[in-house]
Write a structure and sequence with these properties.
By secondary structure, the chain is an alpha/beta fold. The protein folds into five domains: 3-87, 2-Layer Sandwich (GMP Synthetase, Chain A, domain 3); 107-175, Non-ribosomal Peptide Synthetase Peptidyl Carrier Protein, Chain A, CATH 1.10.1200; 194-381, Chloramphenicol acetyltransferase-like domain (Chloramphenicol Acetyltransferase, 2-Layer Sandwich); 433-567 and 591-646, 2-Layer Sandwich (Chloramphenicol Acetyltransferase); 659-771, 3-Layer(aba) Sandwich (Rossmann fold), CATH 3.40.50.980. The protein contains 25 helices and 22 strands. The protein has a six-stranded mixed β-sheet. Strand 20 (716-720), helix 24 and strand 21 (740-743) form a beta-alpha-beta unit. Helix 22 (666-676) crosses helix 23 (692-708) and helix 23 packs across helix 24. The longest helix has 19 residues, at 354-372.
Length: 779
């Protein structure tokens, strides 16, 4: 962003005499443009400032338009006559799109203005203030919707993201017809535990009086239990989260704070029982012991501490959990300095999700501060996890089934992920721990994503999902791809849902069909609308969704998932203790996981992969391609999707590589060329680019498919495709499979093509559905 260009446009406005534009960061990681102006004749009218956005929009892109305009009597100067940027005041109100406050008038507007100001943490919000310019995102949209529901307003996160300003959101809510009441399942009956099963649970408990409650698992929990029981070891869905605690003056009080917080929440006092039951249940105990271990390593140096920690973490992982015997939760506190403690929280995913961890950390800090001051902790009332289970059981399964049948119609297989890299073998399958390749997103790209999102109304989560879908399409060569997305699973209509501690997340299928001819801005809006639509059915069990497709029984619907870890920030507290999240070890069961973490405004992406399936060098190359696609998606909303390359500027300009070894056949020469220069451009159609590595990978995948369909040496394979990348892939794949390709020009008459195919004895035909096919030719 050229600040001078913005200042120049401001000075072109007649009422403005002086102008300065800076980038402010009044909250960590929250960088925003701020404009300061001096009006001619010393005027200070905010009405002039209010029209500046409209004036600038004629010449500047959205991301270069400051959200605030502060009118000054004079710009502050240093003793040398230069602008004193440090003396420029903080904008009085972070109003997103207008400098003049527009008061709410209707009851709906008043409630929404109050709630939005609370959510984005500003003094007040006017009717025209833009949610994204105020720092809003998808998680804050969910929180706003939840608070609105609690206040009696049926607001959805989709309405917040789509309409953006309070005025437009309120208008949409007030204009929406009252939705007909959907059939609701009988949650009381769904949660009822048969008397025989209840008696069996009570008889197995050490003390029947210790059992506080019994209710079924949610479908997500039941699926986790199934995989945990039938996994080769006891560590499926094992989670190990680490925190760095600073300012801990009393370690005993810190341990007591963790115990008190854990004892508050029913989900953390729960075990699982399933032996001999009609269906598994979770058993809430009145008094369950929370295992807390303490280590004092403060006398050791950093290297010794690192070695000890690695051994401790490994032993902790190998210990696993007995889900029946005790709540699957334990804590280790490691003193590393006078007031520093490393925290290792180990748990089974069945009882906790990431959102809940954020709630727990905030409560622990509050409880600790109360204990060290000699007071009793004053924590908010607990919203029991059972309330969420009841809500889940009350959802209408028929509506969800209809939605997913339509959404996944025609899906017959998971999107194949092939990462060829002969330079580094994959590791033996001795352990299913995920390895990780991390990408620290450059500040320039992160800021561009934020600015683009605010201008176009696109969330960071949408950008990441879109980039992943596009990457899978490029890697697999499929125009129709499917992957998983982990969602919070917290319905805004359920009062207190933000405060529930338990397992609410879910993983849903996302289906994308990237069209190379569509503009990126239009495609991102389609992706966002699709993701918002999924939220209406985010309670659906993945096993039940998969059963609705044409996949073979036992097949997985997708092999990769996207997780955007954007959890709500805890309440601001002026305490001396901080809990900084550290690395997390988790087992998801999926071969490839994209995790986005946002701590303090810095965006970090992690590609977590199973090392016995993928070589690290291949995953590193994939991470580079992902970053390039992200940059391309936010470069220009009018750019065609197919013109976004996967190579950075330097790699795209590489000359064609020269193989070091001789080759007997064309396809062998090509494979050697791909190995010599995998990132060089192999094909450039003008609307789509593909590297040697990507072309070789896609050709290998198609060649394997052809071999499975009886293509052997000299088998005639017809290729009836238009002149684009797929045609090159088909030709190369046919040669790799040993066949002979027969070119069939799609613009020829159908009868002529059929005659050629018949004369050549074509057994297999590669074509497109849009070309109408060639009748019964080939397979």
């Amino acid at each position: 962003i050229e600040l001078g260009e913005i200042e120049g446009r401001l000075l072109a406005h007649e009422p403005i005499d002086q102008a300065a534009v800076i980038v402010r960061e009044d909250a960590p990681g929250d960088r925003r443009l701020a404009a300061y102006i001096v009006l001619v004749n010393g005027e200070t009218s905010n009405e002039i400032a209010a029209g500046l956005r409209e004036f600038l929009e004629t010449d500047l892109p959205e991301y270069m338009i400051p959200p605030t305009y502060t009118v000054l009597d004079a710009l502050p100067l240093t003793s040398s006559g230069k602008l004193d940027r440090a003396s420029l005041p903080v904008p009085a109100v972070a109003e997103a799109s207008r400098a003049v406050y527009e008061f709410p008038s209707t009851p709906t507007e008043k409630v929404l203005c109050t709630l939005m100001a609370e959510i984005v943490r500003v003094d007040r919000v006017g009717l025209s203030d833009d949610f994204f310019d105020l720092g809003g995102d998808s998680i804050l949209a969910l929180q706003l919707a939840a608070k609105a529901h609690a206040a009696g307003l049926p607001v959805t996160a989709a309405q917040v993201i789509t309409h953006r300003s309070v005025g437009q959101i309120a208008a949409a809510v007030d204009a929406a017809p009252e939705a007909p009441s959907a059939p609701v399942a009988d949650s009381a009956r769904a949660l009822a535990v048969p008397a025989a099963d209840r008696d069996r649970v009570l008889s197995a408990a050490p003390s029947a009086a210790d059992v506080e409650d019994i209710y079924p698992l949610t479908p997500m929990q039941a699926g986790m239990l199934f995989h945990s029981l039938y996994a080769t070891d006891s560590r499926a869905y094992f989670q190990q989260s680490r925190y760095a605690a600073d300012g801990v003056r009393d370690v005993q009080a810190f341990a007591d704070a963790w115990r008190q917080v854990a004892a508050r929440h029913p989900s953390l006092r729960s075990t699982v029982f399933y032996d001999g039951l009609e269906r598994p249940v979770q058993v809430v105990h009145r008094d369950a012991e929370f295992s807390v271990s303490r280590e004092d390593w403060s006398m050791h140096g950093p290297d010794e501490i690192a070695d000890r920690l690695e051994c401790l973490l490994d032993a902790d992982r190998r210990a696993g959990f007995d889900l029946v015997g005790a709540p699957p939760l334990r804590l280790t506190l490691i003193v590393t300095g006078p007031d520093t403690v490393d925290v290792v929280l180990t748990y089974h995913h069945l009882i906790l999700d990431g959102w809940s961890l954020s709630n727990l950390a905030a409560e622990v800090v509050q409880a600790y501060e109360a204990l060290v001051s000699g007071a009793s902790p004053s924590l908010p009332p607990v919203v029991p996890y059972r309330r969420y289970v009841e809500w889940h059981a009350g959802q209408d399964p028929d509506r969800a089934e209809e939605f997913w049948r339509d959404k996944l119609d025609g899906v017959t297989a998971a999107t194949s992920i092939v990462l060829d890299d002969s330079t580094e073998p994959a590791q033996p399958a001795a352990d299913d721990d995920l390895a990780c390749v991390a990408i620290d997103v450059p500040a320039s790209l992160s800021e561009r994503m934020t600015q683009y999102g605010r201008g176009e109304g696109i969330t960071t989560g949408t950008l990441l999902h879109a980039a992943w879908g596009l990457l899978l399409s490029r890697y697999s060569g499929d125009a129709d791809v499917i992957f998983g997305s982990t969602v919070s699973g917290r319905p805004p209509e359920l009062e207190g849902i933000d405060d529930i501690v338990g397992m609410c997340i879910n993983t849903l299928p996302v289906r994308m069909q990237p069209d190379p001819a569509i503009c990126t801005g239009d495609w991102l809006r389609l992706v966002q609308a699709d993701l918002l639509e999924l939220r209406r059915f985010e309670h659906s069990a993945l096993a039940e969704i998969t059963a609705l497709t044409e996949l073979r029984r036992g097949s997985r619907l997708f092999d990769s998932i996207v997780i955007v870890e954007n959890y709500p920030a805890g309440p601001a507290a002026d305490t001396g203790v901080t809990l900084r999240p550290g690395p997390t070890i988790e087992r998801t069961g999926y071969p490839l996981v994209l995790v986005a973490l946002n701590h303090g405004g810095a965006l970090r992406l992690e590609l977590r992969y199973q090392p016995h399936l993928f070589a690290r060098t291949a995953v590193e190359r994939m991470s580079g391609h992902l970053g390039t696609l992200l940059r391309g998606l936010v470069e220009d909303a009018d750019m065609r999707l197919g013109t976004i390359g996967m190579l950075d500027t330097a790699a795209a300009g590489q000359p064609a590589p020269t193989p070091s070894a001789a080759a007997d056949t064309l396809h062998e020469w090509f494979a050697a060329t791909a190995k010599a220069g995998p990132d060089a451009t192999a094909v450039d159609t003008g609307t789509e680019q593909i590297t040697y590595a990507e072309l070789d990978r896609r050709a290998n995948q198609l060649a394997n498919y052809l071999r499975d369909h009886a293509v052997v040496a000299e088998t005639p394979v017809g290729i009836c495709l238009r002149r684009h990348v797929d045609m090159v892939v088909a030709m190369l794949a046919t040669m790799k499979a040993g066949g002979t390709y027969i070119p069939l020009a799609p613009d020829n008459p159908r009868e002529r093509l059929a005659q050629i195919a018949d004369d050549a004895r074509v057994r297999v035909l590669l074509t497109e559905t849009e070309l109408d096919g060639l009748g019964d030719v080939g397979e």
